[in-house]
Prior knowledge:
Elements: H1 2-6, H2 9-35, H3 51-56, H4 58-71, E1 76-81, E2 84-89, H5 92-99, E3 107-109, H6 115-119, H7 129-139, H8 145-172, E4 179-180, H9 181-198, H10 204-221, H11 232-259, H12 267-280, H13 291-322, H14 324-337, H15 349-354, H16 356-368, E5 377-379, E6 383-384, E7 390-391, E8 396-399, H17 401-405, H18 426-429, H19 447-464, E9 465-469, E10 478-480, E11 484-486, E12 491-496
Parallel strand pairs: 2-8
Antiparallel strand pairs: 1-2, 3-5, 4-12, 5-8, 6-7, 9-12, 10-11
Bound molecules: protoporphyrin IX containing FE (HEM) and 2-acetamido-2-deoxy-beta-D-glucopyranose (2 copies).
Amino acid sequence: MIFSSFISASLAAPYMVSALLLLLILEQLSYLVKKGNLPGPLFVPPIIGNAIALVRDPTSFWNKQSAMARISTGGLSANYLIGKFIVYIRDTELSHQIFSNVRPDAFHLVGHPFGKKLFGDHNLIYMFGEDHKSVRRQLAPNFTPKALSTYTSLQQLVILRHVRRWWEEESFSGGSRPVSLRNLVRELNLETSQTVFVGPYLDEEARNTFRTDYNLFNLGSMALPIDIPWFAFGEARRAVKRLADTLAVCAGKSKARMAAGEEPTCLIDFWMQAIVAEIKSGDPAPPHSGDEEIGGFLFDFLFAAQDASTSSLLWAVALLDSEPSVLSRVREEVARIWSPESGDGLITVDQLAEMKYTRSVAREVVRFRPPATMVPHVAAENFRLTESYTIPKGTIVFPSVFDSSFQGFTEPDRFDPDRFNETRRENEVFKRNFLAFGWASHQCVGQRYALNHLVLFIAMFSTMCDFKRLRSDRCDDIVYCPTIAPKDGCTVLLSRRVATYPNLSSN
Ligand code: HEM
Ligand SMILES: *[C@@H]1O[C@H](CO)[C@@H](O)[C@H](O)[C@H]1NC(C)=O
Ligand SMILES: *[C@@H]1O[C@H](CO)[C@@H](O)[C@H](O)[C@H]1NC(C)=O
């Protein structure tokens, strides 16, 4: 009070300006100290850092980080984004250091900039140690060969329904209307997840609200985290809550059916069957097995599955289009094993296992264009990463899965599915470079299911459709949304390639 009455406004202004200047200088100094000997810009714009460059053109922003990391001996580079110091990691073995040290006092997965606010704390990716392990153990029954084989029929029925719809839309336009596959494939994947995860427990109405809510969530996940009514972020939070509640109801219904000894027909059933069995044996209910928590975990599944799968399906179409010899080998292999025109029904599990080349193609799509190009983590403490560099507490680190895909493998810049065949086995030989599904304790739980989905889609789409990419200027450029997609959303001319639909009564 006394202070302010002594100093008039005109006198205070210079003090405020110098205080502000001091803060800005401290910000720069703190950046330079944290950066140490890493390559990176010497001066960063105050407060927002290089966020504008990142938002304007993420691809070239990350390419520059990668190029800087390449010329440095350590395989690291630094930058500054909205008050956060960041370290980009190009070297595969250094990325392993991050993935292998996810624990309370080292690295925490970020998932989404406002993830905890958006999803709530009960989220697989924010769990650690024994607690996390116990949930991962609970999830194992969801991805056994038997469970996966149940899903393959469900997946195919959804793929067929969508492909048939695409055909029909095409016949209206005489096969001459270009379609951007991005939204179509997103819809296909959302319906697949719904059906595979909780299918029988959702009626038509629930399915529709589910779609609307998932879209609200998507819009909000791109928005600023302002949690008041009518703002996208608040809408998204409420949508997530409704979705998780719906999924919790499904968990309850599934428990009742499994307790009555019925056969599992979707993912939640395999999960609840194990839990119900444990309770029946007289043991207490396992931790995190209440309906609400299960609903929350199922939402994580949905979120984790959706964008990554959409990305991989789109790149598969784009790459098959630009590599005609690969496409014709896929078609040859599939035709030898499965042919709807000879009266075959759905692809059986044995037939799927026989499609070795198609599986190599799927693996190569994921290597060549890993959907999540980086897996950001935050350092909870200082972490000594190399002899000469310690990651300061609070740093966001970006291990680049994308860069690892182009290290080790023979001629890594070639799209070459044969690298995964039984002679070359590069999936074993260069296992440590295949980081598209992450590594160590938090490695993708859905990876086998995700690869099956990609193989099934490639087999069915290339057998049932003729497609030609409408190539526009730089259509193969990588855009971040935030998993990667071809810039044009994969725009194709599409037409029907087979005269008959698979015989669904023969399975
Ligand atoms: C091509 C498709 C997919 C890709 C590229 C992908 C990639 C990833 C990556 C990079 C991670 C982080 C791993 C780590 O931190 O080590 C992850 C985690 C996860 N993924 Fe996937 N994923 C895909 C599909 C799926 C599907 C279909 C599901 C669900 C069935 C799924 C469920 C999850 C879950 C639940 C986690 C968190 C695991 C944990 O924190 O313990 N993902 N995924
Ligand atoms: C694997 O691919 C290579 C060509 O890259 C080929 O020479 C070899 O015969 C293939 N092996 C199998 C089992 O197909
Ligand atoms: C479809 O399969 C069923 C059962 O195998 C068979 O009876 C029927 O004739 C088949 N239909 C066609 C059109 O092939």
